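Thread: quick sanity check before group meeting

JM: Hey all, I'm pulling together slides for Thursday and realized we never actually wrote out the predicted structure for the chain we discussed last week. Dropping the sequence here so it's in one place. If anyone has concerns about the input, flag it before I start.
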Amino acid sequence: MEARCVILDIGGVLEITPPTGWMQRWDEGLGLPAGSVDQQLDDVWQAGAIGTISVTEVRAEVGARLGLDAMQVETFMADLWTEYLGTPNVELIAYVRGLRSRCWLGILSNSFVGAREMETAKYQFDELVEEIVYSHEIGVCKPDPRAFDMTCARLEVRPADCLFIDDYDVNIEAARAAGMQAHLFAGNEQTIARIAAHLDGAASLDSPHEAI
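JM (edit): ok, ran it. Output follows.
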């Protein structure tokens, strides 16, 4: 297998995750000002992203802070995961699946506690790549450089051999600072072409003005 490596984000790349408006609906249903639910749970979201809170504790905090009973909490969590998981980016997933014999494949995702179980059950990403690195499991989120270092270490690859795909500029910039090549996801056609160029050993297309 070649040393080249492709590392992908999940939300907004492998998953299509448009806003569903679920928190706004909870604001309205609870008679709260717009943004209240998100604000009241801000520290819970942050803790869940770096794994300092369990799924059970998330449910308890949601119930206590919003005054919800057990059934309402389950409905709230179902709404959360519906937006979080979105729908599969079928074309890109199929393309990546076909790369298994050509390169190392990894995922680096800013995540939420419980994401591995939910995404494995729905999308089997564990069968798509060699390593999945979740922020809630490593305790740091992109664009922290440690996230990129840990991902390369787990895949046993050099940053220079990696192409990182993400849908946020700040993470693309961080990946490049970590020594990776990087591509800002803006659609499947250009992303697939960029991956193909990387695997074919084309000269780096990375620049602050890379066409996307």
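AS: nice. Confidence is low (pLDDT under 50) at residues 207-212. The chain has two domains: 5-17+87-199, 22-85.
JM: adding both to the slides.
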